[in-house]
Amino acid sequence: MKTMLKKCVLGLVGALLLAQPAGAAVVLKLATMAPEGSIWMNALNKARDEIDAATGGEVKLKFYPGGIMGAEKDVLFKVKMGQLQGGGFMGYAIGQICPDSNALMFPMLLRDHAEADAVFAALRPYLEEKARASGWETMGWTEVGFSHMYGVKPVGNLDQMRATKVWGLDSVMLKELFAKAGVVSIPMAITDVLTSLQTGALETVFSPPTAAVAVQWPSRIRYYNTARLTYAFGGVFLSQAAWKSIPEAHRDAVRRILGAACDSVTPLVRKSDEEALAYMRSIGIEAQEPTAEEYKGFEDVAAAALANVRGKVFSAEAWDRVQAALADARAAAAP
To answer: Which CATH number fits domain 22-333: 3.90.420.10, 3.30.1490.100, 3.40.50.300, 3.40.190.170?
Structure first.
């Protein structure tokens, strides 16, 4: 009874905050961890202006970049309360909005961008259906990229990694992987990582190259592992209440423009990731390429963790769909 009452109150608060006077513009407030000036924010700011023009000013977007609204967990709560209407998400929130998306981001799963494109295209309708079922409307998906491991100390293999202070996130999947790898991690918000690298509280971190440069990690790290450890993607999402607040005549334009903005990011991110790694090497950061045996060590850890993740972090159905799409992609690419 208390739970039902709480849901009713939250729903009423959200509805009141979304309510607009007759003839007033619908203002959608979205938060993101992407910093101002980044590839992602440049695309979103352009979309904001295009939506304003396409709707005659009847739909306006306001973005809060750089984590100024808090971590993604905080942003999700603010959306639930009606203080925000959505966000551009890249990590924790994606797993909450659509847990099955984690199946595509399982470590050591995808080898390259061609596989990522093929598998994502096959799973996209399924993921959007799942997001809608959990109360969200997908505006578009953005590539975050393949993550590498960076260190103040060498990180070329598991033994070297275990000998450092490793960054940990509030992620069940990551905790399972670290447990199987015998790694003790230190949980920390991404906004605190740079300071922790400076003070020595952290020594090993993970991220796609572009994101690492955006948050200034290369100023502290000395090594990076060339292996593509995991693939990540994000997206722009609105709550169902916010989506329904948009005049029906403008919904197609809002989705089309935001979707195009998200699509435009992928090739830019890929080019930027190459440039980011080249930049790291140019300032003396050493690239460590694992041997076949060392690479297999990472694969073995992922395989060992799978049993404790499949059916919990993501559904067995999602994993089976990913495996089927991946098999098709590899068969099509085979000589």
So the answer is: 3.40.190.170
Rounded to whole angstroms, what are the CA distances from 186 to 27, 91, 190, 192, 203? 39, 18, 12, 12, 10
Cα-only R_g, the chain: 21
- Evaluate whether 82 touches 135 at the Cβ level (below 8 Å): no
Measure the N-to-C terminal CA separation of the chain; round to a whole number of Å. 61
Q: What is the rounded CA–CA span in Å between residue 171 and residue 169?
A: 5
CA 185 to mean position of chain CA atoms: 20
Residues 103/325, Cβ–Cβ less than 8 Å: no
260 versus 18: the higher-pLDDT residue is: 260
- Tell me the domain boundaries of the chain: 22-333
pTM: 0.84
Q: Is the pLDDT of residue 20 over 60?
A: no
b/e per residue 46-65 (b: at least 16 CB within 10 A): ebbebbbebbeebbebebbb
